[in-house]
Amino acid sequence: MSRSPADQSQRFLFEEADIRGESVRLGATYREILAIHEYAPGVSRLMGEFLAASVLLSNNLKFTGRLILQARSAGQVPLLMAECNNTLGVRGIARGAEEATASDNTLLLAGGQLVITIEPDKGQRYQGIVPIESGSLAASIDAYFEQSEQLRTRLWLAADGECAGGLLLQQLPAQVVPAAGPRADQWQHACTLAATVEEDELLTLHTQSLLGRLYHEDALRLFDPSPVRFECTCSRERTLNALSTLDPAEIEDILLEMGAVTMDCEFCQARYIFQREDLQELPGINQSKTLH
Length: 292
Description:
The protein is α+β, with helices and mostly antiparallel strands and about 290 residues long. The protein has helices at about 30-35, 40-60, 105-110, 135-145, 180-195, 200-205, 205-215, 235-245, 250-260; strands at about 10-15, 20-25, 65-70, 80-85, 90-95, 115-120, 125-130, 155-160, 165-170, 220, 225, 230, 260-265, 270-275. It folds into two domains: about 10-230, Hsp33 domain, CATH 3.55.30; about 235-280, HSP33 redox switch-like (CBS domain Like). A hairpin with a 6-residue loop joins strand 3 (about 65-70) and strand 4 (about 80-85).
């Protein structure tokens, strides 16, 4: 079993049922994100689950945009977020988790809420909120789909600080099997077998091997895998737009004291430096002031 998985997501269909699935394994991409910040082991594992889940859910995106998973809690991790765009570029960050020591999600995300945001580049933003069930990200996402009356969806997630993996099942609208009874039986069958998956199998088995282990008696169609990569969406232009929301007096004070405004991206640590002349489009910035 390989502990250095290819960073990829792969879709599959049940040929004789209205059920689709998705498998994801992350290795170098996951470790690249962790290398930017020094997270405790429990936080690193949690980040892996969020990254895997964001990839699995983003495969539903039919537009140019991104899906964001964000947890806010009263626990040791006040905020953790992961996002994945429609081309499977991912990034993630945990804030305020410097003192986190727990390995149990119930302590890391105590009293937490999960916010799922779908954000198209053009069009209306959609957001759903559910409580974090027993510290389990997978159970919380399952509950989100159940309460929002969307297609039945189940997730299984795993991460260990080196690799992350996940499996998604989703029941599709009736086409292959229109009768309600057989549809329910097929969904129960698929979920029961998926629930036997071990964390190590999610982290080490390629999709074909994983599905062969779970569904060797079912007819499946496996699609070509899609690569997943670390991709930060920060840019100089976006950072300048963020500066435009600040009080001009605050920016002016920074310019007078420091000679320039410096902004660091939390996700990738890219640094953007703006001189006074770079900020001439911002309202309230006096272009005639210089330091002597």
